[in-house]
From TrEMBL:
Family note: Belongs to the 4-toluene sulfonate uptake permease (TSUP) (TC 2.A.102) family.
Cellular compartments annotated: Cell membrane; Membrane
Full protein name: Probable membrane transporter protein
Keyword Cell membrane: yes
């Protein structure tokens, strides 16, 4: 049953990641936490396992999504390259920091972040262009912050990267596409740090590599890679405003679940 849930989760996440530029980790983390509770994993590491596995799966989702966006010539590779070095460092240190926190702390932190993303979507806040030529210092500071926070909450960073890119002159479609490309270095830095911090933990379940649960990683990655191109293709055809509001309500429900679990 768990494998079926992982495959279903991956397919939903793949479509949303390509369609909205956000959503992968925001759904993966709470759903994995619920499944891990059902499987009887130790409470002390449930959030760490969910966060680490989420970031590792985003590695594969982002490759598929970015390829599809690239086919539409929507990725701003210059901006992605300028953000990448600081994002890698930020994601690495974010994972190390999360490794020293307890699940009791990580759970409400993630839930609060999820509620903030939901509010951003529900109220239709739009990032208008203010500075179309950000400095290299701006790229480095922003990349570091995006990578650090994304790694702590186990996401690909789209909820922060998309508004930042739009603030600096990118169209919504180019922002979503470039955000997908930036999600790859976030996932690399974050996944490696969760692998490192959890490697010698005494409570790891079987088939784990640090704080990454391999059965969930394989199933989610397989189905998300297959469905991410569909979401990326739809992003260039659909008006996603109403979809974002429905997605925001889902995030609120997941956040409430984490607070109450």
């Amino acid at each position: 049953m768990e494998t079926s849930l992982y495959l279903l989760l991956g397919s939903v996440v793949g479509v949303l990641a390509g369609l909205l530029g956000v959503g992968g980790g925001l759904i993966i983390v709470p759903m994995l936490a619920a499944i891990f509770i059902h499987q009887g994993m130790p409470d002390d590491i449930i959030m760490h396992m969910a966060l680490g596995t989420s970031l590792a799966s985003i590695l594969f989702t982002s490759i598929s999504s970015v390829y599809s966006h690239h086919q539409h010539q929507a990725v701003n590779w210059s901006r992605a390259a300028k953000l990448t070095p600081a994002i890698l460092l930020g994601a690495w240190f974010g994972g190390l920091f999360a490794g020293i926190l307890s699940s009791d702390i990580l759970k409400p932190v993630f839930a609060l972040f999820e509620l903030s993303v939901a509010a951003y979507m529900l109220w239709g806040i739009k990032a208008s262009s203010h500075n179309e030529s950000p400095s290299l210092f701006n790229f480095n500071i922003s990349g570091g912050v995006i990578g650090f926070i994304s790694s702590i909450v186990g996401i690909g960073g789209g909820s922060m990267t998309v508004p930042w890119l739009m603030w600096h002159g990118s169209s919504i479609h180019k922002a979503i596409a470039t955000s997908a490309a930036v999600g790859f270095p976030i996932a690399i830095g974050g996944a490696i740090s969760y692998l490192y911090t959890g490697w010698s933990h005494t409570q790891l379940p079987q088939y784990s590599a640090g704080f990454i649960y391999l059965p969930a990683l394989v199933s989610i990655s397989l189905s998300s890679v297959l469905f991410a191109p569909l979401g990326a293709s739809l992003a260039h055809k659909l008006e996603v405003k109403k979809l974002k509001r429905v997605f925001a309500l889902l995030l609120i429900g997941l956040a409430i679940y984490l607070f109450s679990s």
